[in-house]
Fold each of these.
Amino acid sequence: MLRGTVSIMLRGIAGHASTLLSNNTSTLLSNNTSTLLSKQARNDIKQAIWETILHRISPEEKSWIDKIEQIRKHFSINSTQVSVIDYGAGAPDSSRSEEEMLKGTTSISKYSDICKGSKPELWALLLFKLVRKIQPEFAVELGTCIGISAAYQSAAQHLNGKGRLITIEGSESIANIAQNNLESLNLNNIEIICGKFKNVLPEIFAKTSGIDYVFIDGHHDEKATIEYFELFLPHLSSGALLIFDDISWSKGMKRAWKIIRNNSAVSFSADLKMIGICKIN
Ligand SMILES: C[S@@+](CC[C@H](N)C(=O)[O-])C[C@H]1O[C@@H](n2cnc3c(N)ncnc32)[C@H](O)[C@@H]1O
């Protein structure tokens, strides 16, 4: 999506949000348990959205963003081909069965096409700003691709002076590209694990009992998305932030998002149409 279009979209959402964030009656930001609502967390999310829209970035933040965007630029025009395996749902209207997704679909893809799966700059900046505000110690990302969103979140943690990120990618060839990209940025607070989300998660859960921040950007299947949410729940710290990408991507993802945001463990949620944010009790 063009940056201008995303910006206009976010502006509309934020205009709506700033009215509704203050009066607790929002469908955009709704409360399940208003007594447990953290005013601070609402403000952090609101500020992250506004700073993204206004492109309010410090010189040191800009320096990181420029370096990451250079990598995106390089890949977006690179026609090198590589074999990739996808364990996700494919396209919004595709009807891959559970068995097919488990087995994976192999194809030959250009770097430039793989790169298109990365979050566009403005949405990546929103993730960066959320991490800057929330200051998570232990963050997890499902869906690394070539490492663009991982680099944004990890750079934000680097600037925070604390925190680490574990990111999971199913396709080995793509994970190798991400590894090179993240190494070229000298980010040492990040680990890429190659494997299917469901297979790798127990290994991550064994490392900590308190995950503070999760970005789920892969698979895009209704049942799988709900399952990941349920798998994470017992391993989240109190007040953790869960971010779901592509909540309007397909009918199934819309249903999954509705079920997740209405779960009693969610103290409040923000629906940004593309991204859904949940704050856990
Ligand atoms: C949309 S891309 C991630 C983009 C990345 N977060 C960014 O914005 O830079 C989704 C990635 O998740 C991976 N993926 C999808 N389903 C998976 C699964 N079940 N297990 C492991 N990886 C998976 C795909 O190979 C793909 O690279």
Note: Residues 16-27 have pLDDT under 50 and may be disordered.
Amino acid sequence: MDRSDPAWKGQSEYTPLLLRLYDPLVLGPIARFVWRVPAHHIVEHYQRHIRPGHLDVGPGTGAFILRSGLAAGSALTILDPNPNVLAHCRPRLAQFDLTAVEADVLKPLPIEARFSSAALNLVIHCLPGPAERKAKAVEHIAAVLEPDGVLFGATVLGTTGRHTPQARAFLKAFNWNGGFDNLDDSEAMLAGILNTFFEEVTIRTIGSAAVFAAHGPRRSTRAARSHSSSQRWGLVRNRSSPHSSQKASHSARGAPSQRSSSGLVWRIWTPSSAVRRRARSR
Ligand SMILES: C[S@@+](CC[C@H](N)C(=O)[O-])C[C@H]1O[C@@H](n2cnc3c(N)ncnc32)[C@H](O)[C@@H]1O
């Protein structure tokens, strides 16, 4: 990737050294104590949604794929613009029928295959804003999913997230250094983007992050675009207060929700719930 590319910063820090430190440091204490998203939540999310014929965008060290329960020999594609990431993952993921693609998810994907599942895990916060640019990643992944395919993952939220003071300090530092570009990322922005390109979207917040799954890619770009312009990203506001309790902040007023086995409430963002909210706020 060219240094002048807006996506350069978000992927350039994954050197061989950082990749060696990533699992013990980033997926360990930083995930647990800074973002308050212990890795087991993400592992469970992978286990719930991954299917053979999986595309992992921005796989990092491949740690979650390895713990996902994906059967050895399953078709797996990893995609990342950083060759260090692909070189790190290749031997670790050798038990799978692996294809590695060096590409930027913000550009149309150079892929003919169609996938049953795709992960965009802890990547959106690394992508350059604004929301319209981040949305390209979701659009490009939706285009290579099977009609009943699922996109899932998690992302650290920006200033509207439920952060601790330590998390806010890390957020500021990572945005200053360019590894993150997510100060404006909100749950509402994420919901708007996912609903533009998928039929059914669920989002829950855990600590500083939004954990999402989106089913059924919208097939017609025109339909997605017209949905997008009718919804306007950001209009579906996250009403949860940073100071409200975890339980309260997970139950959206007016949005249908269901309780998961872990006791957390999953919010179901549908076009109709978005429309209902807008009608009510008029
Ligand atoms: C924070 S790591 C997440 C790694 C892994 N998904 C995980 O959950 O542990 C971000 C990953 O996204 C990749 N990435 C950053 N920008 C990207 C882009 N424009 N297209 C595809 N991957 C990108 C990075 O190279 C890195 O592998």
Note: Residues 234-282 have pLDDT under 50 and may be disordered.
Amino acid sequence: MTKSKSLPQSFRQLREKSPKSHAPCFWIHGIDEKNTSETVEKLKNKGFSGVVLSDPRLVEKIRPSGIEIWLLSSCFRVNDIADEQSTMCMDVTGRKQVWLGGGCPNNPILAERNRDEVRKLAGVPGIKGIILDRCRFIPPVAGLNGFLTCFDEHCENKAKELGYDFNQIRKDVRFIYQLLKSKKQIRERRGLMWFKGPAGIVEWLMDHPGLLEWLRFRRDCITEHVRSLADIVHHAGLRVGVYAYTPSLAPLVGQSYVDWSDFVDVFCPILFRKLPYRPGEGCLTWEITAIPDELGVIGTSIESIVTSIMLSWTRMTGPVTDRTISALRANGIPPEAAAREVILARSLVGKNRDIFPVLYLEDPLLPETVRLMFSNTANGMNFYSYKDNWEKHMEQVAQE
Ligand SMILES: [Zn+2]
């Protein structure tokens, strides 16, 4: 069987729908570490053109195949120094902790560690580029205290340097913390009415300008860091990719597609329609339900109201009909809604950047999701993550 014949017909059809002139790509995150060479050949024969690896030691095994190799660099990771107080994030109550294995994005030690790692990875011969992962502040899926960070001395100093009023930011973030923690107020729906529509939110934000400043400050910090890492990668003659929060969630964690479009080559929005396991970092349904869950709304009379509000903020109230947290987590968002996030990403980054959504390989609606994303301006797919039965999932994609 020749290579072109082994590429299923529908793969070719999908590719023809791409808006870009060059052929779109299929990537896979991870690889079989035992039968690496054979697996890579199989992947190539099925139309895959790239692999994303966390372990640079695998590069030499894969390099002869000619498939594109991208190395992953995880930002602000503190797994190896988790007890180190100085690199932890501080929540709005003054408590320091490690959430999701990440530390303070403004900590100079962590920032330099990231740059060192990226320099090292960029020196590995035979790679195509570096993917930056977890370059963000702590996301909502970590819970309220984790999300409402970081208020340590590094962030305070950085805010002053950038001209932000850190006291105002802290005051208003503390206000929202206390509001949400007040279960009585939430249950009695007094705090909820403001969140239902844009007019209420605008008025509320005008009274608490520190909240918007907080989001802008986080964006400035993350943009600066991504830019510094991208400079290193480009200087080595390589391409830069990012694993990014979906456009509906990105502003909450300091990620800006618009800012990044100046120096990021490949955007990989995390677009798991659903994910069967916790914590579900980056997965929209886990991200928007974690804090309501923590605040005890499950099983109460306001669960459907809170769920509707969270969905409306992400423009999902139309396509998503579930109104309980458990159903939302179980069913996920429909492929149409996920594809709409791709259109949004495209509108933010322009025509000349690659968009390779990260999809959950074991998603039962994978074929339809892939088709819709290709027909809505994605020009590649990144399947997460490698499993021994990957061919079975890709066969289903090909049959669509
Ligand atoms: Zn900090």
Note: Residues 3-399 form a domain with the TIM Barrel fold (CATH 3.20.20.80).
Amino acid sequence: MVWIQDRSNPMSPSRPMLAVVAASIATFTACAWFEPAALPPPEPEAAPDAPPPASTNSPDVVLITLDTTRADHLKRYGYFRDTMPGLEALADGALVFDRLIVPMATTLPSHTSLLTGVWPHEHGVLGNVEHGGERFIPSDHLQSLVSILAAHGYQTAAFTSAAPLNTDSGIQRGFQTFNAAPKAERSGDQTTDAALRWVADAPRTPMLLWVHYYDPHNPWTAPARFREGFDQDGGAIRDWMESHQVARVTHRPTGEQVNARGAMDAYDAELRFMDNQLTRLFDGLAARGRLDKTLIVLVGDHGEGLNQHNEPGHGLVWEEQLHSPLLVIAPGAAARRVPGVLSMPDVFPTALGLVDLPGEAEFLAQASGKDVLAADYTPRGVLSQTSIRQLKFGVPQTYTLTSDTFKCEWAADGTTSLWDHASDPYELAPVTDAARLDPCVSEGKALVDAQIARGKELGGHREKLSDAEIERLRQLGYVEEAPPPTKDAPKPPPADQE
Ligand SMILES: [Zn+2]
């Protein structure tokens, strides 16, 4: 394995990352080479209500969200490139969930489902706020796990890397420290620096630390050295692209042309870069003794099209945009693979089954998600849907219900499809099987109705950004609008800035 330097300090000496990240997190060691130098000035932090003094001896919680990370571009999920060796090392000590199918391939709705344990129609966030989605505001019946833990004495801190997760989103609620990207996006090295700086001064009370990485999201700017070796596997990547019927060329809504081969390499290079930062973060946590008794959740918020199904970005309901990695590490929990589909609302109900956290009963009472490891869990299909932004691009509202072996799809224009993952894992050709399709669609529609009804019961107060707020974001470069479709022009490909 070629050693990869971090982007922030290209002149630093090579460091044996894989020697530090060994077979499990137990092998993380204090590292003298971490130098939090040349940090950007601290960003303003949210002013929260002060929590009561911590009095528990509860586990720390470390949540890592990997934006735009396709499960099938990770070796642990079958990819031929070792794009994330640090994550691989963590996975050796983790529960690795085979098929996390997220409810929406859009950043804010997916993260809101993660932190609340409910579905998008239940929390009401159906798009990123800068694209017309509503920001999350809790109610008496619906709050994030963060707020619950903060109320029980946890130190809560978040370090996010992109506009959809800034303080306009509502996702910052419950965090005593909320350190967001100062611009539309920040690189993972800067986010890691900020997080480690906070960890260095964090009190020894239990903490919930959330670090969000955005590097795999377009635009791809990882230094060329992160592509090292990719030019040696031209045959393998061509075979991979051919088997997945990847379109040679697509276009983004902005008109930018996306060449498939270049996109694969640039995207995988960003995964490597992000992995490098992930390793720095975990080494830093280990050096501070914050991995000794810790619940660790690493989860992707959605995947990426990479020209599959003629889509360079995400926001739709194809497998490659919904299937995301999920690793959970808990004290005393044996590493293993976990088969079967689950969704974002299930992540914390499942993880909380492995540890005892104060307030977890309160969270589980509101959650619609299930503990998929519970003895009484009955496998069920999971719902996914397109984001409301897709309507602007002429894509009808579309839902899918994914079970362990197949997936049905129905859209507002009346079209339906059935995909048999047992024989067609890449969703290359729908099958005709009314005996499976019709009951699946009926069940899915009933789930949508039930979720909308429960959303009204939960009553999260929701609000859209004002025109002035949208304009402010536009001036900051947060809002990238594609030209609206015209009647005569071909339908533009859906957006990727989700
Ligand atoms: Zn995202």
Note: The pocket of zinc ion is lined by residues 67-68, 107, 301-302 (CB under 6 Å).
